[in-house]
């Protein structure tokens, strides 16, 4: 737990710096581009991150899982790099199709289509989950945080340059693209200093031959990551498709400010996952503690959004974004729910139940996307935010129920309870079914 708190501290420190820099470029971009211009910017960024998120495998989890459990970091890293290369190829094809058909479903003008495709390709080439995994495998969270700080710093500096030299959508997209390239280079350089990158180990066969369940884990985590993207970036794209660029821009601002807790949830998840892999016997107790602490933090954050959110929206984005206050509050509640569920989802994935975690999240995510059109017709941005809240709530309830059921199955099938049931003081250790 001590090391976990240190790692979370480093990650939160980085997120704090990121948050400050984010406010800088968000304020500059919204006030320079206005509601509609920022809407175009939001759609382009969301499309690039959607393509990257859907094509990208969660290779950091593979490096941690197999690098720590027998295969060694060299083979795990080679497998991860091979998957990254496959992601670039698949993602480029997907980007070409989506951008070519964009005018059929997105409110993007002709002059921004090539810019959109270029940003998609740069995002794919800047995939950085493999070096991140190497740093987390060795618990180098301080170095990872230092490298990741490059991204918000470049974005803020780029926004300032765009304000003076290219105050349009293109200028801000270029600033965002430059930050993607810079942070990817920083992470690879720092990771390579601690761990030799052996390109001769790049292979899609070595890890699967040693671990028969490898591809199931790969596709499960990929689909789970895709669902995470669907819950945020695809949601913005669909809001823009249904409600237009102005609604997409306002919803993105509300999402970025209100769902800062989702980023915090991802931070907790990334810090706790390596610990759950290395310390299986205390995994359940660790996850339970983090969920309880997250509940308190989530409540406090929602109170801040409720009482200071309207002022924050106006001060940062300007008066024309103030109408998205209630959408921001609802998204803050959704972020609090995700914060509580982060450790539960990580527990399932670390226990080899990534496919179960995917199914638990898939149903409410798809349901939210299906109902989004009706939700926007009902109450605009607030309706879309309610769809996000419903999806997050159902998913976290599903994680909790699944973990309880796994424990009950363990007890029900145990043929010799007197030999395997832990003593009272160890009753919170991970059940055998979760260590499978």
TrEMBL record:
Keyword Methyltransferase among record annotations: no
Annotated spans, Disordered: 416-436
Coiled coil: none
TM regions (residue ranges): 12-32, 38-57, 78-100, 112-137, 290-311, 323-344, 356-378, 384-406
Protein known as: Lipopolysaccharide biosynthesis protein
PANTHER family per UniProt: INNER MEMBRANE PROTEIN YGHQ (PTHR30250:SF31), PST FAMILY PREDICTED COLANIC ACID TRANSPORTER (PTHR30250)
Key words, A-Z: Cell membrane, Membrane, Transmembrane, Transmembrane helix
Membrane topology: Multi-pass membrane protein
Any single Gene Ontology cellular-component annotation: plasma membrane
Cellular localization per UniProt: Cell membrane
Domain of life: Bacteria
Biased composition annotated in UniProt, kind: Low complexity: 426-436
Ribosomal protein recorded as keyword: no
């Amino acid at each position: 737990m001590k090391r976990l708190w240190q790692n979370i501290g480093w990650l939160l420190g980085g997120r704090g710096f990121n948050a400050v820099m984010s406010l800088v470029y968000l304020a500059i971009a919204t006030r320079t581009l206005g509601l509609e211009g920022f809407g175009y910017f939001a759609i382009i960024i969301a499309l690039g991150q959607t393509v990257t998120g859907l094509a990208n495998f969660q290779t950091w989890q593979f490096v941690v899982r197999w690098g720590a459990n027998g295969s060694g970091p060299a083979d795990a890293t080679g497998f991860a790099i091979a998957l990254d290369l496959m992601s670039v190829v698949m993602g480029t094809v997907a980007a070409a199709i989506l951008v070519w058909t964009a005018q059929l479903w997105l409110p993007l003008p002709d002059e921004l289509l090539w810019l959109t495709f270029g940003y998609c390709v740069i995002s794919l080439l800047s995939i950085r989950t493999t070096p991140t995994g190497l740093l987390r495998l060795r618990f180098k969270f301080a170095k990872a945080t230092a490298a990741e700080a490059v991204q918000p710093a470049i974005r803020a500096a780029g926004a300032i340059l765009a304000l003076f030299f290219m105050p349009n959508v293109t200028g801000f997209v270029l600033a965002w693209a430059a930050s993607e390239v810079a942070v990817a280079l920083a992470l690879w350089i720092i990771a390579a200093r601690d761990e030799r990158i052996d390109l001769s180990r790049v292979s899609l066969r070595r890890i699967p031959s040693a671990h028969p369940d490898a591809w199931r884990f790969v596709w499960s985590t990929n689909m789970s990551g895709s669902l995470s993207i669907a819950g945020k970036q695809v949601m913005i794209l669909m809001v823009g498709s249904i409600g237009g660029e102005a609604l997409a821009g306002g919803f993105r601002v509300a999402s970025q400010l209100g769902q800062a807790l989702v980023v915090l949830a991802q931070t907790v998840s990334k810090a706790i996952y390596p610990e759950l892999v290395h310390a299986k016997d205390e995994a359940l107790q660790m996850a339970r503690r983090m969920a309880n602490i997250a509940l308190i933090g989530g409540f406090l954050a929602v109170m801040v959004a409720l009482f200071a959110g309207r002022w924050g929206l106006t001060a940062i984005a300007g008066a024309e974004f103030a109408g998205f206050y209630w959408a921001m509050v609802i998204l803050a509640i959704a972020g609090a729910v995700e914060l509580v569920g982060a450790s539960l989802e990580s527990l399932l994935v670390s226990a080899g139940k990534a496919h179960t975690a995917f199914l638990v999240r898939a149903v409410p995510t798809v349901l939210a996307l299906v109902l989004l059109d009706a939700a926007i017709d009902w109450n605009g941005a607030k309706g879309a935010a309610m769809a996000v809240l419903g999806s997050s709530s159902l998913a976290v309830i599903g994680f909790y129920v699944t973990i309880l059921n796994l424990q009950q199955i363990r007890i029900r099938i145990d043929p010799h309870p007197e030999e395997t049931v832990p003593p009272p003081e160890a009753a919170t250790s991970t059940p055998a079914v979760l260590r499978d």
